[in-house]
Design a protein that fits this description.
Elements (H helix, E strand, L loop, with lengths): L1 E5 L8 H8 L2 E5 L3 E5 L10 E4 L2 H7 L12 E5 L1 H9 L8 E3 L3 H12 L3 E7 L5 H6 L4 E12 L10
Parallel strand pairs: 1-2, 4-5, 4-7, 5-6, 7-8
Antiparallel strand pairs: 3-8
Helix pairs in contact: 2-3
Length: 160
């Protein structure tokens, strides 16, 4: 039997786990990163909040409860982030879901949000690709809302 090591946590019903079971391959999924919240200030009122990842939803979406109504529209980088918004305690819905890479997402989102104020909560290590591309089309507000660091001395996994 072969062993495949994936550097992210996998749910038991993950397609990769099922693939391994069908192909006589043990699949081990373990993240080599740890995540921690970072305190951040809310921006001035914004028209949109753009979430780069499900992790950004985890660490920033609760702050929406602190905003006056009406809430800003929500944008998601990919269907996984849109799903994280829906599964959030508040049951949030993305008005824009970008797909097919950050450059194309920026182009499409720029059409929707041109001239608007957009908040980008992100990781400390974010490349900030979408907001950088859009800096001349939208008013960008951003904040680091979480940090990711390597796990110290991860356990050895033999994969073949």
């Amino acid at each position: 039997m072969h062993t495949l090591f994936i550097t992210r946590n996998l749910e038991p019903d993950s397609p990769l786990v099922h693939w391994g079971a069908r192909n006589d391959c043990a699949v081990i999924g373990r993240s080599l990163l740890r995540f921690a919240p970072v305190k951040f200030w809310l921006p001035k009122p914004c028209d949109w909040w753009f979430f780069y990842s499900p992790r950004a939803v985890t660490f920033a979406a609760d702050k929406l409860a602190l905003l006056p109504m009406p809430l800003p529209k929500l944008a998601a980088m990919g269907p996984g982030t849109a799903r994280a918004l829906r599964q959030h305690d508040y049951g949030l819905t993305a008005s824009f879901v970008g797909e097919k890479g950050p450059e194309l997402v920026a182009k499409e989102f720029g059409k929707v949000a041109a001239g608007k104020r957009v908040f980008f909560p992100h990781a400390r290590q974010s490349r900030k690709t979408v907001q950088t591309i859009l800096k001349d089309q939208v008013k960008v507000y951003d904040a680091v809302c979480y940090d990711n660091q390597p796990v110290e001395l991860p356990d050895f996994v033999y994969a073949n």
